[in-house]
Write a structure and sequence with these properties.
single chain; alpha+beta; Immunoglobulin-like; C8orf32 fold; five-stranded antiparallel beta sheet; 5 helices; Transglutaminase-like putative cysteine protease; Papain-like_cys_pep_sf; Bac_transglu_N
Length: about 290
């Protein structure tokens, strides 16, 4: 068991006063069988009103409505979580899904819906062919296939930090051969969908006390990874950026079908044409 403290501060500075439109925040760690949320606090300036809801994926969403104009926006999220996930997890895959290809039950297909359907049709042939190159026979071990695909991302794609917002389409990531953690996670999810797996994107935090993980700055940072649904085991965590399986060093904040649905902070403003953003994240053991 590990207890972690997470501080995530986002600051926007404007050259003159602006009117802030409603903002959507996905900053509250997502509880599950291996993560217990001990506390969470959001502090926001300028003056505002916050309402909470759950989206279609069960994520906790804070909607912020601002009362006054400002030349600075500060959003600070403070969390304390308890992690019980193992560094070497064993997954109880159902007998029907041990070998690939397998078939989800009718109920699972219905419930997975768009999560099992490729979302990037343009350039899809390149991603489909790349994904199928990891299938080495008419039948293969399901977990081995997924682990090979997970490692294959970093064999093909070199990690490179990018300050600009947005995520490259998976075929473009393959073509460029470079990408951020969100590019790599999107490629992995889309490739898994072409192989028939139910897959979803996860955003949250990477805990890296040894500062040895790719995509980390200091002992912690924001991060993106993926989850694959396998009967019996449920949702299995894959971090293609670091070739890892399992979530012992990952703190999820939101899951969704598409990376654009899990942005930690999203919103707009009216006024100044110039803004400067800074993000500071620390993850530390208690």
């Amino acid at each position: 068991m590990t207890v972690l403290r997470i501080k995530h501060e986002t600051t926007y500075g404007f050259e003159s006063g602006v009117s802030l439109n409603p903002h959507r925040l996905l900053l509250r760690p997502r509880e599950g069988r291996e993560l217990r949320l001990l506390s969470h606090l959001i502090r926001i300036a300028p003056a505002n009103e916050v309402t909470w809801a759950q989206d279609v994926f069960g994520n906790a969403v804070a909607m912020v409505n601002f009362i006054a104009m400002t030349d600075k926006l500060v959003i600070e999220s403070l969390s304390e979580v308890e992690l019980t996930s193992s560094a070497w997890p064993v997954f109880p895959v159902a007998a029907s899904a041990i070998s690939y290809p397998f078939r989800y039950s009718d109920e699972e297909w219905t419930d997975l819906g768009a999560l099992a359907t490729p979302q990037h049709r343009d350039g899809g042939d390149a991603v489909r062919n790349w994904a199928q190159s990891f299938v080495l026979g008419s039948t293969t071990d399901t977990l081995s296939l997924l682990k090979d695909l997970n490692q294959g991302v970093t064999q093909w794609i070199r990690y490179e930090a990018r300050d600009a917002e947005g995520t490259h389409p998976p075929d473009e990531t393959l073509q460029l051969g470079i990408g951020t953690c969100r590019d790599m996670a999107t490629l992995f999810v889309e490739a898994a969908r072409f192989l028939g797996f139910g897959s979803r994107i996860v955003s949250g935090y990477l805990y890296d006390p040894d500062m040895s993980r790719v995509g980390s700055s200091g002992s912690g940072s924001t991060h993106a990874w993926a989850e694959i649904y396998v009967p019996g085991a449920g949702w299995i965590t894959f971090d293609p950026t670091n070739r890892s399986v399992g979530g012992h060093n990952l703190i999820p904040a939101a899951v969704a079908r598409d990376i654009r649905q899990v942005m930690p902070v999203s919103g707009s403003y009216l006024g100044s044409t110039f803004s400067k953003m800074s993000v500071e994240v620390t993850v530390s053991a208690k």
